[in-house]
Amino acid sequence: MTNLTAPRFNDVDAAREHLEALHWPNGPVCPHCGSVDCKRLPAQRGKPSKRNPEGAIRKGVVQCNGCRQQFTVTVGTVFADSKVPLHKWVLAVHLLTSSKKGISSHQLSRNLGVSYKTAWFMAHRIREAMIPGDNGPMGGDGGIVEADETFIGRIPGNSRMAIHNMNKVVSLVERNTGRATSVVVFGHINSGTVGKIVFANVSPDAQLMTDEGRHYRNIGPAFAAHHTVNHSAGEYVRKGDKSMTTNQIEGFFGIFKRGMKGIYQHCGSQHLQRYLREFDFRYTHRVGTGVDDDQRADIALLGIIGKRLTYRRIGPVAA
Q1: What topology is assigned to 140-292 in CATH?
Q2: How confident is the model at residue 310, as a pLDDT?
Q3: Residues 55 and 44: beta-carbon distance below 8 Å
Q4: pTM to 2 decimals?
Q5: How do 70-71 and 144-152 pair as beta strands?
Q6: Domain limits of the chain?
Q7: How far is residue 82's CA from residue 128's CA, in Å, rounded to a whole number?
Q8: Contact between residue 302 and residue 126 where contact means Cβ atoms under 8 Å apart
Q9: Hey, is 215 helix, strand or coil?
Q10: Which residue of 229, 237, 249, 274 could cross-link 146, Cys pair, CB 3.0 to 4.6 Å?
Q11: pLDDT at 156 over 80
Q12: Could you tell me if 23 and 302 are in contact, meaning their C-beta atoms sit under 8 angstroms apart?
């Protein structure tokens, strides 16, 4: 159980040291040239400003002996150039990654003591850090990958709450690892749009597990095996073979929808992909996979490198 009074959540220096331990286990590495020939500098005084007429004190400054550039552990990360104290960033990451169904920006604002606008932007930056690295295709060596689609919210400009007017999502869950990947579908759900997502993320050696949807018929033969359950006939688990089911991905959709409707309540179509990455991240690194809250937060903190997100880029996000 995490102690929210831990120094890294309440002290800037402790938060910086925690990040340095994660990103530089063997000592500082220059983000500009990659050199490890670096030296730590004493606290530096920054340029005068309205907020700090005498110049703010900067700790944790390192100078590269190769390119001569100065840097801190936040350079080149989603935390770079932020006026929010670093310990509040570390706490925000922990709150967002440890809340099973998410945490609203209003709640984050109250917990951190920042404005709603700041909390909203911080949450989107943290979601950028949750974008997975290249983990390879799902279901290699004959693993089972469950695939299904769901519908949520309403596409702007459509007044009727019909399926074709709702946001469409295709999700994949690798059964043996619990890894989840979700993608917003722009257009209709058919073998073309769904197939593009499945082929891009699932190994040909995998066993594909789906419902009876017609769009999977043309996709299935491309994999080692294609199993189906007939939901329209009331079949959710195959008699005599409990592995023939899509219950795991249905459970993922249950968490996702309870979070979106109960916590976030409304999400614009242009931001839906970022929220999906958040739910994918927490599900992939959930307690059932052997990851606790502290470890999950540290995994997100390791993902902050090279994923800058500015206000100009806060609009529509590609899948």
Answers
A1: Nucleotidyltransferase; domain 5 (3.30.420)
A2: 64
A3: no
A4: 0.91
A5: unpaired
A6: 140-292
A7: 15
A8: no
A9: helix
A10: 249
A11: no
A12: yes
3-class secondary-structure state, position 70: strand
The SS3 assignment for 243 reads: strand
AA letter at 306: G
For the chain, the farthest-separated pair of C-alpha atoms sits apart, in whole angstroms, at: 75
Alpha-carbon gap, residue 278 to 280, rounded angstroms: 5
Name 252's Cβ contacts closer than 8 Å, sequence gap at least 6. 171, 173, 180, 279, 283
Rounded Cα distance between 13 and 46, Å, is: 17
Specify whether the CB–CB gap between 229 and 235 falls below 8 A: yes
For the CA atoms of 117, 118, 119, 124, the dihedral, rounded to the nearest 10 degrees, stands at: 90
Tokens matching residue 162: 């019909």
pLDDT at residue 215 in the model: 94
Tell me the β-bridge partners of 254: none
* Residue 251, CA distances (Å) to 85, 163, 246, 254, 255 in order: 37, 21, 9, 5, 7
Query: In sequence order, which ranges of 99-246 are alpha helices (DSSP H)?
Result: 105-112, 116-129, 191-201
Question: What does the block give as tokens for 237?
Answer: 């688990």
